[in-house]
Design goal:
Helix content is 65%, strand content 6%. The protein has 517 residues and is mainly alpha-helical. One of its GO terms (biological process) is response to arsenic-containing substance.
C-alpha cells in the first residue's frame, strides 16, 4: 500500500512523521512555563535555592540547561562550511545593522511610547533590547530549518559586539540620548569583563564542545556514522534542555510574575510589537537582498531574539532583584518564548509562498477528468519544467537504487532522479544489481549516499521505503511511503518480485507526472 501526503496540505499526516516531542512543541513549552510559574509560586524559598550558586551571574541550573540545550545543535554544524557564510557580505552587514543599530533603536522607541510613565519598566525594556541573542536563537533557527552554519557565525559575531558595545550602547540609550531629547534617563554601570565571561560560558563552551565532537567523531567513525547514527541520538537532548531551562527560569520568577499580572501585561505589549516588527522586517530584508530561505530565516531569528539571561543579570546586578527593571527582564522570556515558537511556524508557512523555487508546489496525481488535457495538467502540477523525485531507504543499497534505476530508464531525461539512505551501506546489494541487469538496467555506477536536508529540500516528491523518521519533513513536499520487502540478504530469486513491484509503482507514479500520447 502507498501512503501519500503533501506537507502543508495535509498537516496531520506530516505531523505524524515527526517525533512526539516535535509534534506538540508549543504544548510542551506552554506546560513548562506553567509548571515553572506554579513551582515558583507554591514552593517557598525555591528561587533562593536556585539562585544559591551562579555561573557568569546566571543561576547554575539555568546555565546547565542552556549548555545542554545548545550543545546538540552546535554539534550538527558543518564547520567546514563557515567560509561560505563569512564570504556573504549581504548577510553579515545586514545582521550587524539589524542587531546593533535598528534593534536597540526600535526597543528604545517602543519603551518610551508604551512605558513613558513607568521609568523602571522602561529602563528594563531598553536593557533587553541591548542584549542580542547568543543562545536560544540557535534553537529557533534550527526548528525553522534555517542555516545552522550561518546562525553559528552570526551568533559569534553578536557575541564579539556584545562584549565591545553593550556598555557603550547602555550609556547612549539610557543617558546620552534621553538627555539630548530632554527625557528622563538612567545610569547603567556594566562590567565588560562580566559580559565577556557570560559570552564565553554560554557560547564558547557549547561551541567548542560541538566542534570537537564533530571533528573527533568524524575522524573516528566517519561522517556517515556521525550524521546518520550519532546526531539522531543526541538530537532530542536539545528540546529536553530547552524545556528544563524554561521550567527553571520561570520558577525563579514565578512569584514576581503571578503577583503582578497587570504590570506583566503592560510590559508584554511593547515586547510583542518588537518581536513582530523585528522578525517581519528582517525576513523581508533578507528576501529583498536575495538571500535564500535558510539565510533569510537565520537573519530574522538572530535579529528578533534577545539574550534575556544577560538582560536579567545586568538588571538585577545594577538595580536589584526586586526592581521594576528586573521584572521587565523576566517578562522578556515569558513573551519571547511563545512568540518565537509561533514565528517558527510562520516562517515554515511563508517558505512555500515566498520562496517557490526552493520549495516547489507538490505534484498531485491526475484525476480522470483532467487526464484529457495532459499539457494543462502538467503545467498545473509542476511549476518547473522538470520534476524531481527522491527515493529513500535505510541503506540506499537495494530498494531505493532499483526504484531510481527504473525511473531513469522509463522517464529518460524528463524527471530528475535522486536516491539516498539514512544509514547508507558501503556498496549496492549485488542481488539488486543482478536483478536490474536482467531487465537491461545497469546500476553498478551508483553509490549509496547519505540522506541530507539539502537533498530532501531540492526534491518535489519524496518516496520512503522503510527509513522511519530519519527523513526530514518540509512544507510543500509530496511524501509517499512504499511498503516494500527489504532485499538485503536475499538471493536473486527473491529479489525479482521486489524489482517487478517497484516497476509497477514507478509506472503508476509516472502516470501522474508525465503525460502520455
Amino acid at each position: 500500500m502507498t501512503n501519500t501526503t503533501t506537507a502543508g496540505d495535509a498537516p496531520p499526516a506530516v505531523v505524524a512523521r515527526l517525533s512526539r516531542l516535535d509534534q506538540f512543541l508549543p504544548l510542551w513549552i506552554g506546560l513548562a512555563m506553567a509548571a515553572g510559574l506554579l513551582l515558583g509560586r507554591l514552593i517557598p524559598g525555591l528561587d533562593t535555592a536556585l539562585e544559591a550558586v551562579k555561573i557568569g551571574g546566571i543561576s547554575l541550573p539555568i546555565a546547565l540547561g542552556l549548555l545542554i540545550m545548545m550543545y546538540p545543535v552546535l554539534a550538527k554544524v558543518r564547520y567546514d562550511r563557515f567560509d561560505t557564510v563569512t564570504g556573504d557580505r549581504r548577510l553579515l552587514l545586514s545582521s550587524l545593522l539589524l542587531n546593533w543599530v535598528l534593534g536597540p533603536a526600535l526597543m528604545f522607541a517602543l519603551a518610551w511610547i508604551f512605558l513613558a510613565d513607568h521609568a523602571e519598566y522602561r529602563t528594563g525594556l531598553i536593557i533587553v533590547g541591548l542584549a542580542r541573542c547568543i543562545a536560544m536563537v540557535i534553537i529557533w533557527n534550527d526548528l525553522a530549518r534555517g542555516d545552522r552554519e550561518a546562525a553559528a557565525v552570526l551568533v559569534a559575531l553578536n557575541s564579539v559586539f556584545q562584549v565591545l558595545a553593550f556598555g557603550l550602547l547602555g550609556w547612549f540609550y539610557l543617558s546620552a540620548l534621553p538627555d539630548w531629547l530632554n527625557l528622563s534617563g538612567a545610569r547603567l554601570e556594566v562590567s565588560g569583563w562580566d559580559i565577556a565571561v557570560n559570552v564565553l560560558i554560554f557560547l564558547g563552551i557549547p561551541l567548542l564542545a560541538g566542534y570537537l565532537t564533530r571533528h573527533l567523531g568524524e575522524r573516528a567513525k566517519g561522517r556517515t556514522w556521525y550524521e546518520s547514527r550519532f546526531l539522531p541520538t543526541i538530537g532530542p537532548v536539545t528540546l529536553y534542555g530547552l524545556l528544563f531551562t524554561i521550567v527553571i527560569l520561570f520558577a525563579l520568577q514565578g512569584d514576581a510574575i503571578t503577583s503582578q499580572p497587570w504590570d506583566v501585561a503592560l510590559i508584554a505589549v511593547p515586547l510583542l510589537v518588537y518581536f513582530a516588527v523585528m522578525w517581519a522586517g528582517s525576513f523581508a530584508l533578507g528576501r529583498a537582498i536575495g538571500l535564500n530561505y535558510e539565510r533569510t530565516t537565520t537573519l530574522a531569528f538572530t535579529a528578533a531574539g534577545n539574550n534575556f539571561e544577560l538582560a536579567i543579570a545586568v538588571a538585577i546586578g545594577t538595580f536589584g532583584v526586586t526592581s521594576g527593571q528586573a521584572l521587565a527582564g523576566v517578562v522578556g522570556p515569558l513573551i519571547e518564548v511563545p512568540a518565537l515558537v509561533a514565528l517558527v511556524y510562520v516562517s515554515l508557512a511563508l517558505r512555500r509562498r515566498l520562496f517557490p523555487r526552493q520549495c516547489p508546489a507538490p505534484p498531485q496525481p491526475r484525476s480522470p477528468r483532467s487526464a484529457s488535457t495532459p499539457t494543462a495538467t502538467r503545467k498545473a502540477l509542476m511549476p518547473n519544467d522538470k520534476p524531481s523525485v527522491l527515493f529513500v531507504c535505510v541503506h540506499n543499497a537495494g530498494r531505493s537504487q532499483m526504484a531510481a534505476g527504473w525511473l531513469r530508464h522509463l522517464a529518460g531525461h524528463a524527471v530528475e532522479v535522486r536516491s539516498a539512505g539514512s544509514a547508507p551501506a558501503g556498496t549496492i546489494n549485488p542481488a539488486a544489481v543482478e536483478a536490474m541487469r536482467e531487465v537491461g538496467i545497469d546500476i553498478t555506477g551508483q553509490k549509496p549516499t547519505l540522506l541530507e536536508y539539502d537533498t530532501v529540500e531540492a526534491s518535489d516528491i519524496v518516496i520512503t521505503m522503510g527509513c522511519g523518521d530519519a527523513c526530514p519533513v518540509f512544507p510543500g513536499k509530496r511524501y509517499e511511503d512504499w511498503k516494500l520487502e527489504d532485499p538485503a540478504g536475499k538471493g536473486i530469486a527473491a529479489v525479482r518480485p521486489i524489482r517487478d513491484e517497484i516497476k509497477a509503482r514507478i509506472e503508476h507514479l509516472l502516470a501522474g507526472l508525465i503525460p502520455t500520447n
